[in-house]
Amino acid sequence: MPDRAPLRVLVLDAFHGGSHRQFVERWRAHSRHALTVLALPGHHWKWRMRHAAVHFAEQLAARSRERWDMVFCTDMLNLAELVGLAPARVAAPPRVVYFHENQLTFPVARPDARDLHFGFSNFTTCLAADEVWFNSAYHRGEFLAALREFAARMPDFRPTAAVERVAARARVRSPGIDAPAVARVEPRPPGPLRIVWPHRWEYDKGPALLFAALRRLVDRGVEFRVSVIGQTFRSAPPEFAAARTWLSHHVDRWGYQARREDYARALAEADVVLSTADHEFFGIAMLEAVAAGCVPLAPARLAYPETLGPVDGARARFFYDPDGGALELAARLEALADAVARGDALWPLGVAPGELVARYRWPRVAADMDDAIAALVSARASDER
Questions:
Q1: Is residue 1 part of a domain?
Q2: Is residue 187 situated within a structural domain?
Q3: Residues 248 and 142 in one domain
Q4: Order of strands, sheet of 319-320, starting from the edge strand that comes earlier in the sequence
Q5: Closest by alpha carbon to 72, among 14, 143, 155?
Q6: Is residue 183 part of a domain?
Q7: Rounded to two decimals, what is the model's pTM?
Q8: What is the pLDDT of residues 256-270, one digit of tens each?
């Protein structure tokens, strides 16, 4: 059994916004350890990766009386730089880095636009950590494959052994989700199929496929309602502005739901949560919607077979073939709309939606993370005796 004594954990979050901020705050709320959080705002990500180590090292030098048992950072920090710049009392404890995403495989708008410096920063961060945690096995596998390919491209002195040290340190630790904040109304109120799309308004979340499928439903006269929500930015793919016009008679909610209760209500009222993503390392929004009672409909790839699958048996209905394009996705949505019109139950399993995602509840996830950190600190102490 792991030591249950609380530890002092230094958390360095160089991009404290969105899901990164939620991760840190919810872990701290549920953790038995004492977390000291130093953070930078969640914007200007390239500058965060370049200067965060300098910023945090200066902050830590000023906190000369504080000591920590463990250093925990996220992937936007160059941990190797921090270890070199920070006081020895900060660099000495065991170190864990958590990868929400990575800069070797995160989609870029143009393939030639990838700055490999950031990918190499991820690599040296891994080498400076005792353990490297990924939010899914899919993410871990994709990153390690890309890292091996990256190392093989080097003209000489390829760090093959160093890459395998990273692989030996890689673990999977999923983030958590909270219990639904708004109760679902039972029985379901009458009306057409209600779809929610709760993703970032960016190209890697597949808005072109989303709106192509919905346009087909409109053209076929299918009755449905849709909420297109999720984080928005200064600029969004042009599909959103165009679709807002021709979808106007089908829209329940449009745009970012800044209040958590509004977001939770959108999930509680929907029948189906839809993903059209070209990129997904985990998919918190999908799991939160399932916890709220939505039937998921996701591409049968990326992290979804891991978090929602397997893609056979009863759960096969959670997935569609992304190669089938808008035609297949629209057909799946139309079939769900027909089922709602007939009064059929949409949920295909004998287990409740909340039970399906119970392993991702924050109390359980935080306890597992706490135990893993305690084990790492204990192992280090044993090695030093």
A1: no
A2: no
A3: no
A4: 251-254, 224-229, 193-198, 272-274, 295-299, 319-320
A5: 14
A6: no
A7: 0.94
A8: 998 999 999 999 999
